[in-house]
Amino acid sequence: MSGIKLACIYSDTETALERYIELSSMIDFVDPEKSDAIIVLGGDGFMLLSVHELRHLEKPFYGMNCGSVGFLLNEFTNREVEAKVRNAKQQILFPLKMKAKLKNGDIVEAMAFNEVSILRRSRQTANIRLIVNGIERISKLVSDGVLVATPAGSTAYNFSARGPIIPMGSNVLAVTPVSPFRPRRWNGALLPHDATIRFENLDPDKRPIYISADFKEWTDVLSVEICEDPAKSAILLFNPDHALDDRIFSEQFTSGD
Question: Which domains occur in the chain, in start order?
């Protein structure tokens, strides 16, 4: 199939390099800036990193798995690649926008397509106040931490912390505690995607916390505000029989590994 210009980037693994060489012998790749779509060879982590670094080009990403899990990727193939990219199903990802105040007074911002997690930085549990849309919902969450996950990220750390799997297009975010102690029966919440979520460290001197937004981390956090950022979306491409929304939906009924 002609007429589609493809770029290709790959992770720093031997497998990804070998598959890039294999594909480049068949396809005349162009620079990402000049492409119609970007092929990503690697694992889920490299796909997320690529989206962060190249999202501003407003090109769709077609990932092929050269890692382990490959939840955000298609299976690798060297057959009819241009046709597969052209016929792929689009999935729009909306990231979280995070703004945090640090103990030294700095204000830091970041974007996360999977989750923003807040975790204790000492041997003691964190004491965190939870505020949603300006209303205090939990005056004191005693836990190892808490995270906010997007639907795309709900099958990752959120799921490991026993949070819910969120179908794509459900327009909700998951707020999931990590090893909660108090409130004892609070297992998290599903919030509208346009909610503004704020966390405040109640004891920053004795119980410091750090924050992680996909690949960025900061320590000694005083407060964090999180909301969805629809202005900075990214498009991932999936084969029709391997679509992300179908895979996330099916994960709700999977009992094994």
Answer: 6-93+233-251 (3.40.50.10330), 96-229 (2.60.200.30)
**Which residue has 């084969």 as its token pair?**
239
Residues with active-site annotation: 44
3-state secondary structure of 21: helix
Per-residue pLDDT at 215 exceeds 90 = no
Kind of pairing, strands 216-219 and 209-213?
A: antiparallel
- Residue partners of 135: CB distance under 8 A and separation at least 6: none
What's the rounded Cα separation, in Å, for the pair 221 and 107?
A: 10
In this prediction, residue 256 carries a pLDDT of 54
Find, among 81, 98, 74, the residue nearest to 228 by Cα: 98
Name the strand (E) or helix (H) holding 139.
Answer: strand 135-143
Mean model confidence pLDDT for the chain:
93
pLDDT of residue 70: 79
DSSP state of 162: T
Structure tokens at 81: 């690649």
Phi/psi of residue 158, each to 5°?
-55, -45
β-strand 6-10 against 37-42: which pairing, if any? parallel
Kindly state the average pLDDT of the residues 159-170: 90
Task: Give the Cα separation of 125 and 243 in Å (integer).
Answer: 39
Average pLDDT over residues 157-179: 93
**Alpha-carbon span 108 to 253, nearest angstrom:** 39
Confidence bin at 252 (pLDDT 50/70/90) = confident
Q: What is the pTM of this model?
A: 0.89
Alpha-carbon distances, residue 256 vs 148, 182, 248 (angstroms): 25, 30, 15
